[in-house]
Design brief:
The chain crosses the membrane at residues 20-40. By secondary structure, the chain is α/β, with parallel strands linked by helices. Helix content is 40%, strand content 12%. Strands 5-4-3-6-7-9-8 form a seven-stranded mixed sheet. A two-stranded antiparallel sheet has the order 1-2. Helix 1 (2-37) runs parallel beside helix 4 (100-126), helix 3 (59-94) packs antiparallel against helix 4 (100-126) and helix 14 (398-411) packs parallel to helix 15 (430-438). Bound molecules: 2-acetamido-2-deoxy-beta-D-glucopyranose (8 copies).
Length: 474
C-alpha cells in the first residue's frame, strides 16, 4: 500500500512537482558546499592542520569533523534507500507496460539522484577519516608514544608487559605508565625535558618541569637521569631546632630563584623575592611565629576575625584530629604548629618563585609537590582535616572549585574537618563562591565573612570550619 502511494506521488512529480525536487537537491548540494567552505573541510588544509601538528590536536575540530562525516554518511544512506525504492517501484510498474512517459521520468529521477550521490560521495571521500587518525586521546593504536620523537618518552609511555606473561600481584597484565594529556599539546617542552642521557646528570630544569605540570602535563614522565642536588648537603638541624630556624643556605640549589639565600627571603626589605601571596612566609620570627596561635585581629566593625587559632579548631573534635593535609602556599608553619598538637600534616605546595618545598622539608615537615590539576593522592575517607589558605582564592574558576571541593570531600573521613582559612575574593563574587561551599552540605562550626581592610575595600575574607557529615547510604 505504502509503495503504491509513493508511486502515485512520484507520478505526480513528473508534472508540477519536479522543479521542487530539483530545488531540494540543489539546496542540499549548496549546504554541503557551504560546510566545505566553513573553516576546514577543504581537505588539504584540514589534513595539513591535523597531521603536521600532532602535538596541538584540536578536540573541537575533531568532534565537528566526525559529526560532519556522520551527517554526510546518513545523507548518502538516505539517497541509496530512495534509489532502491524507486527501482522496486519501477520494476513493479513496468509489469503492465502502460505509461511510458511515467517510467521515463522515473528514470530521470534515478539518474538525478545518482548524480547527486556521486557528488556527495566525492566530498565524502576527500574528508579525512577521523576514525583512522591516531588521536592522542583515543589511543586506538595503543601507542600514544608515537606522538613523540624522543626515544626516552616513547619508552616511558609504552605499556610494559609483565616478565612472566601472567597477571602481576596487582591484578594487571602489565604496567601502564601515564602522562597528563596536555603533554601532547606541549610536545616541544616535553621533548626538551626528556632530552638527556640515561644514567647521566639531568639538566637543571625543574622550572621547565613545573611549567609543564602547571599547564596540565601532569603527571610528568619519569626520567632515568640523576637529578641535581645541592653541591654539598649539610645534615639538617635536629627536629627540636629545625621547625623554627631558617635552614642552612647550602642545602638549597638557588640557581632558579631571585633570592640566593634564606636571609634574603626572610628580610622585609627585599622586594619581589618570591610569591606575592607569601612574601613574609620565610620570616619565621615575626611573621610565622604568631600564626594560628592567637586569633587574628578583630575587625572593628563586625568584631570578628577570619583567623581562627589551631586550638579553637581542634577543640571542636578533641583528640580526633590526627592526620591531614594543608593545601596552601607557605613554608609549612601550619604543619609545624599542628605537630606541636601531635597532628601530622602534609603540606601540598609547588615552588612559586621561592624554595617552598625545600624549606618545608628542611624544617622537618613533609612537603607534597602537587599542582591543583591533580586528583589528591589519598584514598577515600582517610584524612581527619584539610586546611587551605592563600591558594584557592577569588581567581579560581567555579567549576574547578567544585571539582576540587568534591575531591577534598572524597578524601575527608566522615566527621573530618574542612578548614577554609581566609579565602578572599571580590565582594560581588562572594555569593557564587559561598554557594560552592554550601553545596557540600557540611555542618558549620564556624562561618565568618570579614571585609578585607586594604586597598579599596572591594574584597572580603571568608573563613569557615566545616564538618563532613556521615553519609550512611549503601
Ligand atoms: C512489487 O512486486 C512484488 C512481486 O512482484 C511484490 O511482492 C511487491 O509487494 C510489489 N511492491 C509494490 C510496492 O507493489
Ligand atoms: C590478561 O591476560 C589474560 C591471559 O593471559 C587474558 O585472558 C586477559 O584478557 C588479559 N587482560 C587484559 C586486560 O589484557
Ligand atoms: C635538641 O636535641 C638534642 C638531642 O636530641 C640536644 O642535644 C639539643 O640540645 C636540643 N636542642 C635544643 C635547642 O633543645
Ligand atoms: C644573601 O643574599 C643577598 C642578596 O641576594 C646578599 O646581599 C647577602 O649578602 C646574602 N647573605 C648571605 C648571608 O649570604
Ligand atoms: C622579619 O620581619 C621583621 C619585621 O618585619 C624584621 O624586623 C626582621 O628583620 C625580619 N627577619 C629577617 C630574618 O629578616
Ligand atoms: C621592616 O621591619 C622593620 C621592623 O619591624 C620596620 O621598621 C621596617 O619599616 C620594615 N621595612 C619594610 C620595607 O617594610
Ligand atoms: C566588640 O567586642 C567588645 C568586647 O568583646 C565590645 O566591647 C564591643 O562593644 C564589641 N563591638 C561591636 C561593634 O560589637
Ligand atoms: C603530644 O604527645 C606527647 C607525647 O605523647 C604528649 O606528651 C603531649 O602532651 C602531647 N601534646 C598535646 C598538645 O597533646
Amino acid at each position: 500500500m505504502v509503495k503504491a502511494n509513493v508511486l502515485s506521488k512520484i507520478r505526480g512529480f513528473s508534472g508540477v512537482n519536479r522543479p521542487i525536487y530539483v530545488l531540494a537537491g540543489l539546496a542540499f548540494l549548496i549546504s554541503v558546499a557551504t560546510l566545505a567552505k566553513f573553516n576546514y573541510i577543504t581537505p588539504l588544509r584540514f589534513s595539513g592542520r591535523f597531521c603536521n601538528n600532532h602535538g596541538s590536536f584540536d578536540g573541537d575540530n575533531y568532534i565537528l569533523g566526525s559529526q560532519m562525516r556522520k551527517t554526510i554518511e546518513s545523507a548518502i544512506f538516505k539517497i541509496h534507500q530512495e534509489m532502491d525504492d524507486l527501482k522496486v517501484l519501477e520494476a513493479n510498474s513496468s509489469a503492465p507496460p502502460s505509461d511510458s512517459s511515467a517510467s521515463g521520468s522515473m528514470f530521470r529521477h534515478v539518474a538525478f539522484l545518482a548524480d547527486v550521490l556521486s557528488l556527495i560521495q566525492s566530498v565524502h571521500m576527500e574528508l579525512p577519516s577521523f576514525e583512522e587518525v591516531d588521536h592522542p586521546l583515543k589511543q586506538r593504536n595503543g601507542d600514544p608514544g608515537e606522538h613523540f620523537m624522543r626515544e626516552e618518552i616513547k619508552k616511558y609511555i609504552k605499556i610494559k608487559p609483565n616478565r612472566l606473561g601472567k597477571q602481576n600481584f596487582m591484578g594487571a597484565n602489565g604496567t601502564f605508565t601515564s602522562i597528563g594529556h596536555a603533554c601532547f599539546a606541549m610536545k616541544k617542552d616535553v621533548e626538551e625535558y626528556m632530552d638527556y642521557d640515561v644514567g647521566e646528570i639531568c639538566n637543571d630544569d625543574w622550572r621547565l618541569a613545573q611549567k609543564l605540570m602547571v599547564h596540565g602535563c601532569d603527571p610528568l614522565p619519569r626520567r632515568r637521569c640523576f637529578s641535581r642536588a645541592p653541591q654539598l648537603y649539610y645534615k639538617p638541624f635536629p627536629i627540636n631546632e629545625s621547625l623554627w630556624k631558617l635552614p642552612d643556605n647550602r642545602n638549597v640549589r638557588w640557581g632558579q630563584y631571585k633570592c640566593k639565600n634564606f636571609t634574603c627571603l626572610a628580610s622585609n626589605t627585599t622586594a619581589r623575592k618570591g610569591f606575592f601571596k607569601c612574601t613574609d612566609c620565610f620570616n619565621l620570627t615575626h611573621h610565622e611565629l604568631p600564626r594560628w596561635v592567637n586569633r587574628g585581629e578583630l575587625d572593628p566593625e563586625t568584631n570578628q576575625t577570619a583567623d581562627f587559632s589551631i586550638q579553637e579548631v581542634l577543640e571542636i573534635k578533641p583528640g580526633e584530629i590526627r592526620i591531614g593535609l594543608d593545601f596552601s602556599v607557605g613554608t609549612g608553619t601550619f604543619a609545624a604548629r599542628m605537630r606541636e598538637s601531635n597532628v601530622t600534616i602534609v603540606t601540598a605546595t609547588i615552588n612559586l618563585g621561592a624554595p617552598f618545598n625545600e624549606m618545608i622539608s628542611l624544617r622537618g615537615l613533609v612537603p607534597l609537590y602537587l599542582t591543583v590539576n591533580q586528583r589528591l593522592p589519598f584514598f577515600d575517607s582517610t584524612l581527619d582535616v584539610i586546611h587551605t589558605t592563600r591558594f584557592l582564592d577569588g581567581w579560581i574558576d567555579l567549576i574547578l572549585l567544585d571539582f576540587v571541593l568534591f575531591d577534598w570531600d572524597r578524601v575527608l573521613r566522615p566527621g573530618g574537618l574542612l578548614w577554609i582559612d581566609s579565602f578572599f575574593c571580590l565582594k560581588e563574587d562572594l555569593g557564587d563562591y559561598m554557594e560552592a561551599f554550601k553545596a557540600l552540605r557540611y555542618r558549620r562550626h564556624k562561618w565568618v565573612v570579614v571585609p578585607k581592610r586594604d586597598k579599596d575595600d572591594k574584597e572580603v575574607f571568608f573563613s569557615a570550619v566545616l564538618e563532613k557529615p556521615p553519609r550512611p547510604f549503601r
